[in-house]
Amino acid sequence: MKNKIIFIINPIAGKGKGRVIETEIQHYFSQKNVEFETFLTKSIGHATEIANQVLTKNPEIIVACGGDGTINEVAQALVCSNVALGIIPIGSGNGLAANLHIPKSTEKAFEMILNAKINKIDAGKINEKYFFSNMGLGIDADVINNYAQTKTRNFLGYVSASTKAIFNFQPKKFSIELDNEHILDDDFYFVFCSNSNEAGYGISFSPNAKLNDGKLDFLAVKKLNFIKQIQFSACVLGKQIEKMNDAKVLQVNSVKFNSNQPKTIAQVDGEAVIFNQNSIEVSIVPNALNVIVPN
Q1: 87 and 14 together in one domain
Q2: pLDDT at 153 (0 to 100)
Q3: Which one of 11, 100, 142, 197 counts the least CB within 10 Å of its CB?
Q4: pLDDT at position 1, please?
Q5: CA–CA separation, 65 vs 59, rounded Å?
Q6: In which domain, by residue range, is 183 found?
């Protein structure tokens, strides 16, 4: 038999598609000459716990079945290990899967896992937590925080969360160091560090980002009036953010955010995270993760 494959499934991802996909996995892989096991997550953070536990079984591949949040949780345990991450995208945004060209077809994704072609990608690090697509501390964090509280987990829910954020967002003051040099000190509408060129739903704030270039793509946009907010949205949708005069776009190795607030709401790979500190450090870890990709 080939080495073991572990599937970690978010049962509520994709409007409950996770519950169905476990049956599909069992039917498909039981016909192949491969040893496999499936595990269902029960709460936020549980996928990381499962991944750490099953590493003792010496699997060849651990497959995350869910959205960007589930993928992030599983990948946390695999950074700088020899175990490869497989992805079956059944979430709402699926930004990292889109960047990696993971098939949306379940059967084609299964075939990809069996073929096991591996690429190395970088990982971002925010304090002691890893991210693989992007993180942000501006209006995007408020959008994701709103989205987490909505019952409509699809593109319409994302639009609703974005609209609420646009009308209620207050710019956030940060002192920002890029590659250990103080560069920016202002009220910001948007601050963003990206490893991937996809943020989900086909939206990109960093269209030139690459998963394996050893760099973070940094974007900062200072406080905007309402008209310029509309212009910003148009530039994002047109993937032409570098043409906006108010946007600062750079490639960096590290970013340090300092705030006078005791806590900061961030979005990390599309999930809302609260940091109970006024200093946040972001860096890049080159070639940190083995990922299964299409041939």
Answers
A1: yes
A2: 66
A3: 11
A4: 39
A5: 16
A6: 134-283
